Structure formats: C-alpha cells, structure tokens
Amino acid sequence: MNINTNITESLIEEVQATKLGRLLTRDELNRILAHSEVQYYPVDCVIYKQGKVSHGLYILLSGKANIFARTMGDKIAKIDIRKAGEFLGEICFIDKEPSRTYAIAKSPCKCLFISSGYTELLRFYYPETKYKILKAISIQLCQRIKSMHDKVNEFILESDMVSLSLFGRVIHSLTHAKEMTFSQSGINEEQLLQKVLFQHFSDDEVGELLHHASILQAPKNYILIHEQEKSACCYIVLNGAVQSSIMQDNKLAKLSVIGPNLLFASIGCIDKDSKFTITFITCEKATLLKIPEKQLEYFKQQKPELWYKLFELICESIVALGKSIDKLDVRLHIELYNR
C-alpha cells in the first residue's frame, strides 16, 4: 500500500510542524509519509464536499482553507478557517458519516492525505501511532469547541434567553446519585457484553474496565459534569439519557442528548489547561458506568492496549460534541441573520 510519496527533508519538516507531527517519532512520521499522498489545491478549489463520506484525513501543510456549511434554504454559514498544521475533514474521518461541512481553499493549499484504510491498518499493527492521530484530532476539536463555547457565551450574555429558575437550581443542587461497585449493582455482565460498545474490547478487557469502574444510578436533573469542572472522567450510559450543554450566567444552551450504549467524556480528558467545560446533566433517570480520572490514568500507564481502544471512544465523544457545536454555530448564524 505504498503511495510513492517523494519523502524529502523539507516535507518531513513541514509535517513535523503540524499538530500531529509534534506527537510522532521520526520512524512513525516516515511510515505515515510512505503511505500518504501530497495533494495541491488552487484558490477557490473544493477540498472536500458536504454530503460526501470521507475516505481519509487531510493535514494542511501550507495555505488556508475556509470551512462552510450549507443550511436549509441554501444559506451558507462560514464555520471556521483552517491554517497550516491543522486537520481538515476530521469529523467525517472519525464518524464515517456524510460530511456536514465543506472546505474551500482560501489560498493555494498543500495537503497531506492519509487514507482511512491505512489508519485502520495502524490500529492492528501500530496502535500507538493510531492513538497519536486521534489525540491530535481531539486536541484540535477541543480548541474549536472552546472557540465556539466563548462565542456562545457572548451570545448568551447579549440575548434574552430565559435563566434557570431558582427552584430549578435548588432541584439541581438537591439531587443525589447512588454510586456502587459493578458487583453490587446486580447488572448482568453477559448482557453487557452483547452491547455494541463493549464489543470493542476483549472479555478480559471488559472485566478490567468493570473492575476499575463504578455504577452510578442518577435521578433526573443530576449534574454529572459541572461547569468549570476540569477533572478527566468518562461515562457510559447503560440506560436513560444525558444532555450536554453550555452553561453561562445561569442560562443553558443545549447541545445534544446522549442515549444508551454511548460513551461521553469530559473536556478534561483532552484539555485540562483552559477554563472552559461542557456541562452534562441527566434528562431522565439514568444508570451509568463511571470511569474516573485515577482509573483512566491507570489504564493509560498500565494497560496501553485497553487505553488505545478506550481513547477511540473518547475521541468519538469529542467528535460528537464537535458536530453539536457546528450545528449550534449554524443556528446562531440563522438567528443573527433573522434579526
């Protein structure tokens, strides 16, 4: 599967300057370059199309690209500007669904294209390299989410959105969850193994996960991850539902609802330095598997193969947030357009 890319020292330096390149060893970088393709796009050329499934990942080596979304009524919302060193088409690459955005070269662009087929091979033969790709994507997505988070906060401050009532805040503060070990929960492990999410792992790995996780039985309106909470943790929804939101000045901007058999992760799993967070609140009675920061760190240090698989799910949850953020951005464009 060699693409015969001409691997020059200048190309190596260009890739080393990217978000991904800074995480890779020289051997990993050379291996990726041997199975990737350099592509060039003139000004105003479409790099990837909305509504099409991506067959790979683009890394912008030089130039700038505008990211747009075409909305209902054929309105066009400008979502972002990408510059050298950043990924293009990363959301579609992860979720393998038709892209909700499209990219156009703002200036002449040089891209490195890594095929999805090759990254799937990395999962089996070089899982640490695949992990580094997902980590770099997650870091970029968190930066995008933070930018949109700040934009939404400004919108909330200037809007006449209804604040949460004092009664509602009191209800949030009074709700309590019951935490227990998996063995205490009475949940059938065999039934759990049949769920699609757990089929990512071997039986031994599932046992390891369950041993280090706890079961949380939470009532409706229970806050799982608070505003400004930066600890790294993730949850798997076993039943019930959880709502992700941006909270500012006692006002909520809803992002998405997360249902059973899905994992969601705190922003702290990727970004512990900046102050922004996404809030997660149960929107009905829910049972969840909770994996706290200490146990995530244990998997990372002691169980790397399990950690790489778990991180794929964490990355998918960050991608889901990124998609919700983009949809909110489009809604804000429409709101501002209609004012």
From TrEMBL:
Q: In terms of domain of life, where is this protein from?
A: Bacteria
One of its Pfam families is: cNMP_binding
List the molecular function annotations (GO) for this entry: DNA-binding transcription factor activity
By its UniProt entry, which PROSITE patterns does this protein fall under?
A: CNMP_BINDING_3 (PS50042)
- InterPro entries from the entry? cNMP-bd_dom, cNMP-bd_dom_sf, Env_Response_Regulators, RmlC-like_jellyroll
Q: Which residues form the Cyclic nucleotide-binding domain?
A: 20-115, 197-317
Which Gene Ontology cellular component terms are annotated? cytosol
Secretion signal span: none
According to UniProt, the name of this protein is: cNMP binding domain-containing protein
Q: Which organism is it from?
A: Legionella londiniensis
Taxonomy, top ranks, is: Bacteria, Pseudomonadati, Pseudomonadota, Gammaproteobacteria, Legionellales
